[in-house]
User: What shape does this take?
Amino acid sequence: MSCNHFDHPTSRREFLQRAGCGFGAVALAALTREPALGATFPLSSAAAKLPHRAAQAKNVIFLFMEGGPSHLDTFDYKPLLNQLAGQPLPASFKPPITAMGETKSPLLECKRTWKQRGQSGLWVSDWFERVAEHADDLAVIRSCASDGINHAGGVCQMNTGSVFGGRPSLGAWVSYGLGTENGNLPGFVVIKDSEGTVVNGVRNWGAGFMPAVYQGVEFNSDGVPIKYLDNPKGVTAERQRDKLDLLSSLNREYGRTRADNTELEARIRGYELAYRMQSEAPEAVDLSKESAATKQLYGMDHEETAVFGRNCLLARRLVENGVRFVQLYSGAGSKWDAHKGIEANHGKLCRAVDHPIAGLLSDLKSRGLLDETLVIWGGEFGRTPMSEQGDGRDHNPTGFTMWMAGGGVRGGQTIGSTDELGLYAVEDKMHVHDLHATILHLLGVDHTKLIYPHKGRPERIDLNEGHANVKMTA
Assistant: This one.
């Protein structure tokens, strides 16, 4: 039976990195003044890091429509679909393998009204009337593709790059690569629009094989984003500090011989962050300080749009306060999954997000924040042109739409296209790997150089398969 339970450092740098749960590496970084991009010690995430190249985008707000919104009814206009509605898929099209197997259902018409919007003439349906007012700020990617035919695989890949769990999320990669601009708030925040359980749960914003300090922090959606920020009655700040110092000393003594236990280091960091958040977070998340006009801009004065409007306003306040990556979930629990009754399903969900998203874009622009904040909209896949259960659409990972705005993106453009029925991406195909590489490019990060060594392999967000689309840049 082997007794070799320890990994022995092979160099002075590795020794310093491991010593004291990584604190030696902090000292080393301070002495050498290294930019720390790509550093492997956990505490490096506390400070902002230098990108590989100059970039306008400093922050990301990812509006995730969980369940798969239909591109055919929102941003990808296909007149032929209505002309052939009720007929089988033409023989020239190879039927895809969908979540429900090969489908032979007839084509389903789109009942939306479409208009060309803005000076750019982008086609947008009446389900996004307010977002359409920002057409000249949008770069609509109509040729997205992924490998996930079901929600578990699709959501996992859109968030982590792989259909299988266990890899770091996009937000974790951004936090690892760029750090945070505010050490008193999390660098990566996730907010759902309901208590529904997102498919795969916390794995979507987890750190995977990276140190756990890079994982996302979930804020509540019930009007109190962060619970228990106030000390219990009778507990002073000094007493709280003493308790944390004692707890920290015990944890660090325990972790002294367990340097690879990143969960423990993350918990220590979490306690310290929570303590610092008590002074700054209440101000950052206090929406009562916003004017009635601003709340109205986000649709918070209407029941249907109040929840997502509140989350969008909170996202603006967070990036304004230095949070690097904010992800908002609409339809938590795969509510955009319209296998049946797509008109009622999407109609309700689009009404809930259209006004808030338009308000977010307007507010960011008026404050001069849109140029440095990359806003992303989309889900894990799109929907098929063929019908399901008569009036619904099945999953479609072979061709769907996402859009980006702000953060160095050149607005008023479409990138790529699907075929005449919107089934397959046929021009300038952008796989999820390419999307992730492009997002990092807009943030000034070369995805080929953002590496985390894991088990002897140089791991990257794109699994060595992505290419940044430079057409996105302004």
